[in-house]
Protein 1
Amino acid sequence: MRHDAPLASPVPTRTTCPYCGVGCGVLAAPDGRGGAAIAGDPDHPANRGRLCSKGSALGETLGLGTRVLHPLKRNARGAYDRVSWEEALDAVAAGLKAIIAREGPEAVAFYLSGQLLTEDYYVANKLMKGFIGSPHVDTNSRLCMASTVAGHRRVLGSDTVPGCYEDLDSADLIVLVGSNTAWCHPILFRRIQQNRAERDAKVVVIDPRVTATAEDADLVLPLKPGSDSALFAGLLVHLADAGLLDHGYIERHVAGFDAALANAREIAPDLVAVANLTGLPQTDIASFYALWAGTPAVVTAWSQGVNQSAQGTDKVAAILHCHLASGRIGKPGAGPFSLTGQPNAMGGREVGGLANMLAAHMGYSPAEIDRVRRFWRAPRMAEHEGLKAVAMMDAVADGRIKAMWVMATNPAVSLPRADAVQAALRGLDLFVVSENVLSNDTLAAGPHYILPAAAWGEKDGTVTNSERRISRQRGFLPLPGEVKPDWWIICEVAERLGFEEAFDYAGPHEIYAEHAALSAFENEGSRDFDIGAHAELTRFAYDTLQPVQWPVPAGKPEGTPRLFAEGGFFTAERRAMMQPLAVPALAASTSEAFPLLLNTGRVRDHWHTMTRTGLSARLSGHIAEPTVLVHPDDAMHFGLVDRGFARIATAHGTAIFKVALDPGAQPGSLFAPIHWSAENASDARIGAAVHPLVDPFSGQPELKATPAAIAPVAFRSRGFLLGAEDFALPEGSWWTRVAVEGGQGRLFATQADASELMQRARKDFGDEGLLEMVDAERGLYRCAVIRDGRLAAALFLGPDHDAPVWDVVKLAFASEQVDPRQRLALLSGRSLDGAADQGPTVCACFGVGLNAIRTAFAEGAAITVEDIGRKLKAGTNCGSCLPEIRRIGAQARVEVPA
Amino acid sequence: MAEPLVIIGKGMAATRLVDELSQRALGRYSIAVIGAEPRLAYNRVLLSPLLAGEIGEPEIELKPAAWWQARGVSMLYGKPVTGIDRAAKTVMLADGLALPYGQLVLATGSKPLMPPVPGFELPGVATFRDVADVALFRTVAATGARVVVIGGGLLGLEAAYGLARIGARVTVLHLADRLMERQLDREGAGLLAAEIAARGIDIRLNCTAERFVGTERVEGVELTDGSTIPADLVVVAIGVRPRVDLAVAAGLDVNRGVDVDDGLASNDPSIFAIGECAEHRGLVYGLVEPAYEQARVLATRLAGGTARYTGSLLATNLKVSGVSVFSAGSVEPGEGDEILLLRDPAMAVYRKFVLREGRLAGCVLVGNTTGALFYLGLIRSQQDISPIRADLPFGEAYCARAA
């Protein structure tokens, strides 16, 4: 509970969601107690009032319990002492100065984040590339959208998303490639579903994994990992052979077509070849090609399945080629569409936050370097592309980079070989982290300084979403403690490095205006990114800025929904340039030792490393434990059982996950979520197992296909803890932390037996108010600590095959008082009426559990998902659970035939 | 004409026998009930609440006079029996009357044991057996007198509680290292001791009375360690001995009690024994339930039916304001037995279950005895409890839901 919160304000603040790249508008009304009522902004074009489960729960994630509120300095013992901003900023600046003087500017690097606002990004990029003179600025967008950036630039000549969200409403065919849109971009998925319902649009899902997104698609193509470009090369050949090319468009606006088509014919001469490469049935491929070829209003949208690949740039190019060759680009309902992962990946790309960009979508040509130098009046320009994330961490490891400043991201979890990254960071001469939280895996690498940065709800600036729409993200909470915005921190350091006047801003509006001016500087339509109309923006105009899609050149304040319908690509000849593709292949192939492919990605209700979503009990109820999805056949073959445990091993690291059998998983592939870290699980740092092989153009690592082995792990006992946050589980226990109503819980498995846990519990909890149930021979121990009538803590342990279920005890833990008559019954872990047995959360927006939905179907109270919506509200907000509800209904019909 | 059935003793066993018999074969026998106490049969189990003043004397009566009359029972109260003439099949009474019988039932019950220590004959040294004792205790205790209860078993604790309730300062001396050692395990007994102590009763374990001191009347109890506990009243509750003198004199087989077979018959086929005076398969029961079971079996047989008494499962109930204790079957695990425990010390609740080969072999419930009958049923039925094992401690409803 924060004490410096403002009074509840009647007028909600218009801001944007901090999660995915959809960039939904949010209305936030502070409650005066540090929290806020959250609603979708009905006037924001991205979501028109809708929010997904994560966005809806934002109000539950505003607590200060996990925040870092003061500058911290590492002391000799490796612990942290609070220091003043003066001391911290002076020391960081002095440290940078010394290393630059000793080793040259290229010994210094910034690692930034798609979570930063455009203004923060801009000053960081400016300081590094124009004043320190190092090109080594990269960002976690390298793990996210870099292949799209490279693909866009190679083929379109600029990093330009041609279309807009309205195309998803007006398309007759939507092809989703390597995207679990239902879970990762739920609001766009809703728009697509609405289009299907109202306009009967068709949906094709192309993904090695059959996900929730594929649940009711018209066509599902579970192709072999890494074969996407073969499928689209085949489509290009099909378009040519079927005479469906737009020769006029190619003629006027495209270069390199013949070479690209010839190259496509080499890769995918016919259906047989495509079938061989993709592992798909020829009939399915044929119907996909026919559908695509026969539907002018087609949007091909992609996400990480395409990007996180060692051939991601080619995959993007292969998709772009088909749209260019058919002239289906920049037209209503037609175009290639990259769905970005992060709230401001696009903004970062615009300012030049990626190592292979300079600034404002300009690259490193001498003319561009000179232009930016003159605009910035920069004393020391970076002269060439910098190191991309993976290479940057190698340079940290081998000592070429001596100083690194990490902002708003957690590379010790998210980068490939995360353990090696964590070790490398430890070795830096100067390691600085700007953070929201007091503890994470990157902070565990021991930065010399931790700088408390403003979080969502506090910071103020702009973000750009997947459709090039710039929106304001506005603060509605005061800055807690000594927390400062990132732009302020960077500018303070810049001043201490002697660059006062270049970094003397009255606020983010001045930074944004400068950024806008740079985008227009000597542009005259030569560069896609031009927001010159905002170059003179006053603070008032900035504060009242309406969402708008760039380009917004001077004289065109209404912005630009679509580009390239009539060509006008941002190349010298104004032509798109088709590119020959490499032969489709994975960076690393499976072997006897590593016979499977490890795929990584997101779950529905968590975001990144859970520093925010991990605080919400609702969001933690959907998938509570780090769980690897395995195809039943593979499970059989490797001796895995559903809800058992398994060790995933690769050449780089290992992790232990709970096992879930998933018929939708591709045989030979594993899927593990990226969200769990050492903060919230004992053995689930999957990044440690991911290989560092990257795309030659984008430098983006292939995070979705690491050769891996899997083997069962057996534990003697399983249990759960509620409360008792510092209770020490036996050495070698597997555990995961879960937010629950009223505090924190842990699910665990251990080799220890009931009596050992009993001893620990008695020692740790003491006798006062301790209730126990002991059945040593059965390996069962349960205890609860009731103090002042409240359930303060609970520990339940059962044998491995009979893990205790915590739903009912969680309810007691959440309630203020335990009914004295229910004291003993508490240890039964059950409720007689059964009402409390929720089961796992299905609808996070309304907190509806699996059992309620099952019951509704079983009792015939519901036949369709719509009935469920009417009866339980489940699925009526973001709809990301609708596929699951549909599946539950199907199962119910099987189990209880009507 | 109806066959004469004579019942010596008019306690709870005798009353239940008449009740059962009248339901099965009313009129088949002309029944005579002979009792030493000059009053209607009453429920001894209610003596402690009577002592505690929680109920009044009328409420402890088992059956009103009208009930006996309605069943045509001749009541010979206040008429001690002097002997049994098995040859003549008659019972001799103190007033010289000789009562012929066709069938004779001994339900003479038991008498309290007195420790063989000096001073036990002093006035103020009493046992706790009948309404007369209660009257005495109430007059003494009302004055805030100091009372020493010897014996920390069921009866002693009930007496101690009753006495404390009406104002006495009570000390309980117990030979063993824990209360109710035959019915409770160490933890259960410890919890019970704490609860009783919390009610102002001083409990001393591992102590033996050396002698009762006093001149005119008892003034204290001297212990083997030499110390003396002052006392205005000493209540001895260290156990009972079956009343078997008549049976012995009649030459029946007697060990501790009158030796009976599964038909409750002594070695004289027309003489039976039930209740605390009977010994069956080497066991003499000191509780009312076995007596009732025996009465039912005997009634069935006397009515011409077939029934066998094969022994009783011992179940103990102690109920003294808020401290309830239930114990049945084995309370300590034997070789290979398994233990299931549930405890909530703050609420003085303790539940222990002894499991034998997947069956319930016994249980101890302290503080909260709900489900006692359910557990007793499981012990009797010996059904497999494996499927409900984890829910067992929480009572029938949970087990029902689990099964």
Note: Confidence is low (pLDDT under 50) at residues 1-5 of chain A.
Protein 2
Amino acid sequence: MAGPSIDALGQFRLTTGLGPIGHAVNFTNSNEMMLLSVGLIIVAFGLTLRTRALVPGRMQSLVETLYEFVHGMCVDTIGEEGRKFFPLVFTLFIFILLGNLLGLFPYFFAYTSGIVVTLAMAMFVFLFSTAVGFYIHGFKFLKFFVPAGVPGWMLPMLVPIEIISYLSRPVSLSVRLFANMTAGHVMLEVFAGFMILLTASLGVFGVVASIIPLGLNIALMGLELLVACLQAYVFAILTCLYLHDAVHMH
Amino acid sequence: MSRLFTTASLTSGVALGLLAQAGAAHASSNMPQMDFSNPLNGSQVVWLVIILVVLYLILSRWALPGVGAVLATRSQRIQRDLDAAHAAKVEADAAVAELHAAIKSARDEANAEVARATEAAKAAAAEQAAALSARLDVQLEKAEAEIAAARHQALTAIRPIARETAALLMTRLTGQALDEAQLNQGIHDALAARGLA
């Protein structure tokens, strides 16, 4: 392969961040972005709580909108018990949302495009909701795998299906987020790489022809913004649904 | 036009070629996310857990209660203002009702006053009219009596005048005195014919 080529997956390569100290404790570039997200969250909430304006400004409106959006989602989906889980759902939602959005900036690492990161969060949601189920209902929670109103002879078939679908929850939850983010970033990088390659190999014609991948990338960026918000919402609403199942068992 | 076509076909050809090249590159290199032999892949999860726990503590202890308090304060303030506005409206409605009642009672009073005054005026007028008509009746009666007396006087006076005149005329015309009884009979007939007898 002569000349430049598209390395669409290099953007996902982990390196160590924060200089020699980070190197010593294997602090990665994805963790740097996580710290940036946390920093932005603290700044946003700090600005809101410093003014505590009766009539909110832009930053306060944004924070309040996010608060009320996630709070409404928890209460609507889980019920009144959802208030207890609101900080947890909000933490996951804002962390994933900022990871998705920050990842769209050039040279920024999208930590939600790592399967181990999404799987860790999904496994936590899965284990936590299961623990909540057993905590509230005790061993009666196992009845969750026995669908109500089904003839007895069908149960040997249905119970394993229910168990498998339950166990597949963390997989689908993590792969959905990881695959969406990875696919989006690969496509963005491939189209951007086309522009470089076209210019390098075709000269002036290449520059003119680069308009096509550029336009595609602009459209794609709009789509990725939507996906970034949507996937954070999907992760949060599914967390709420799993917690609803654990609390109400139906 | 042909140049555009050439450019477009060249572009798509190159794009297809690059896609194939990129595909080959993908196939040859594994995804870094799936490279579990990389120690950084595991260590980022450890740091993820630490960062998420810290974030959760910050949000649940400080940030979210703070924003919740701001929102609660605002909704309380709005509720208080709404209540105040509602109370003011009730008060204003009561004042308006009071005003209407006052206007109504004043109007009723005025109407009663007007009715009373009209009644009094009517009564006074009727009294006056009765007194006037009584006086007029008396005067009328007196006048009628006077007229009757005058008429009687005139009628009693007309007979001798007529007789003397008739006697004088007959004497002048015939030169002899007229029979007194005949003259009286004629005058009586003439007066009776005129309804004056």
Note: The two ends of chain B are 147 Å apart (CA to CA).
